[in-house]
UniProtKB/TrEMBL annotation:
Protein name listed in UniProt: Glycerophosphodiester phosphodiesterase
PROSITE patterns reported in the protein's UniProt record: GP_PDE
One Pfam assignment: GDPD
Domain (GP-PDE) ranges: 55-325
Gene3D superfamilies documented for this protein: Phosphatidylinositol (PI) phosphodiesterase
Any single GO BP term: lipid metabolic process
Residues spanning the signal sequence: none
Originating species: Bacillus aerolatus
One annotated GO molecular function: phosphoric diester hydrolase activity
Amino acid sequence: MKFFKRIKKSKIVWLLLVLMVFMYINNSSLFAKEREGKPLLLAHRGIAQTFSLEGVEGDTCTAERIYPPEHSFLENTIPSMEAAFAAGADIVELDVHITKDNQFAVFHDWTLDCRTNGTGVTRDYTMAELKKLDIGYGYTADGGKTHPFRGKGINLMPSLNEVMKHFPNEPLLIHVKSNDPEEGTLLAQYLSQFPKERLKAITVYGGDEPVAELRKQLPEMKVMSKETMKACLIPYIATGWTGHVPEACQNTELHVPEKIAPFLWGWPNRFLDRMDEANVRTIIVGGNGSGFSSGFDSEEDIKRLPENYTGGIWTNRIDKIGEIYNKPE
């Protein structure tokens, strides 16, 4: 009897060993075909003024803490997006808010008080009224002694319609800042006027509710929310060792914090290959995902990435990172 128990135990041990070997081989990038090409560079808010991230929270007025300006661009404007693409961005991220006349204003903050000479929220104003505001009004690098962009931001807040017309082919990542489902419905109605080929280059992310509403109307559009991320990654963590990618991952975008990425099955090359096949765009972001929009903003930051990494990179300094990846060979 003991003999048979030993045989049974031995079989279990061997099965576990075989399973472990399979999991390793099936998920190790050492055995994956080498990926070719450069990383995909995502420029957060175009080219923007920089500021210290120390102590930044959701309601921090970052315009009041900028570093001495290195350039004249203001975030989320058409000139800043043009400059971002010229600097090497493959995708530009922009933020949208609904207006009083049901247009989408391209602007980052929840309220107008920090950056502009207006008060309240965008939905209190028509797009024409927002155009009259000075979006450079609140910027200061010296505690309010000087305001280097005051008077220079009038008529610079664009509508989403202006952005779409100005960049008819370029890839854009549209951030719906609210969790209002109606905004998702209105955005879907607006985007539905564009050809399918154009929409292939547009991705929408934001609150669970607006993204869910948009997806109902435009099911083939690439989207991302906390809910879509969880629906994809939680089952992948459970079964991804087999190579299976959950159906919920299809047509989504993943923003993967660098501290979490190494724990995903197959990271980096196997994971990226699997997600590519499921039409998933993978963007690596800085930190552990809990803080401000931390990105890869310097040559030192880039050194933290896996060797020959070819996935997406979130950056707040496309002017710096674009130079690194576009150096003549």
